[in-house]
């Protein structure tokens, strides 16, 4: 009997709808082949709706999302909306409310994709960053006193409980084992300065690894050093695990080394709940409606969604089709407008390779 999944689709702002359409094209091809049925329901949350109604993401929508198997997101961000409103009101709200405590961001260089790292080849850039996704500085703990005066004092606290650290580490260790590549997990932190929070992460990391994952090699980098090694020796990495804010920063660095935002995908994952998959590049408003934006990141995000749903063969097929499309040499660049194909032609091409 064919398996059926309900997918909430949030195309969102800017070029979000265009790339989501191509992702769905590829999902439809792969679901036909693997006898999966995907039922999409579209939601219009984003900048336009906010400007019309003042609504970002109502609690009722979050309750509704809980009934779905997964969420597929295009992009959030609108030039006429003050920065922060949509990011906090939609993206972060969904991550928190659905307890998507893992942000999974693969850094993988596909063939013929240009990397700014000199002499690095696809076999050198293939690792995964596990970013803790609901804790740390992002909880918003802190506050401000004497605002607007010369004495204004603001705090934003990096807060981590052992529970939140442990569940993230467990995911990262399990993933390192499942990936079975270098069997090496690198903890990225800054325990020379973060003597409380960093120390908690390091102890939890070592205790868990020593007790339950003796097959996994434990490695540690300070975050500043990690940014150097990600540029100089990316081949060293297998899986990295880090805090929310450090992960936010280093995953953008990783994305650039794999060819930029046109190809970088991410998953906001609740291993026991509803996860949400997105191209991490943003809404790119200036390219909206031109059929020139690169849809690969959205296609890769769709593949990650299948993998998390447990449809590993279908996920692999998406990855292979992306690989083959790029290996063909027919895509000239990862930049919008310079691919040598339109957005929809890229989608057609990848779908045809499934
Ligand atoms: C990301 C983004 C978000 C984050 C912003 C838009 C809130 O940069 O997904 O990496 O900081 O997590
Ligand atoms: Mn970011």
Automatic annotation (TrEMBL):
Top-level taxon: Bacteria
InterPro entries: ICDH/IPMDH, IsoCit/isopropylmalate_DH_CS, IsoPropMal-DH-like_dom
Cofactor annotation: Mn(2+); Mg(2+)
Keyword Manganese: yes
Domain Isopropylmalate dehydrogenase-like: 6-350
Keyword Membrane annotated: no
Gene3D superfamilies: Isopropylmalate Dehydrogenase
Coiled-coil residues: none
A molecular function GO annotation: magnesium ion binding
UniProt entry keywords in alphabetical sequence: Manganese, Metal-binding, NAD, Oxidoreductase
NCBIfam families: PRK03437.1
PANTHER family according to UniProt: D-MALATE DEHYDROGENASE [DECARBOXYLATING] (PTHR43275:SF1)
The protein, known as: 3-isopropylmalate dehydrogenase
Organism: Chitinivibrio alkaliphilus ACht1
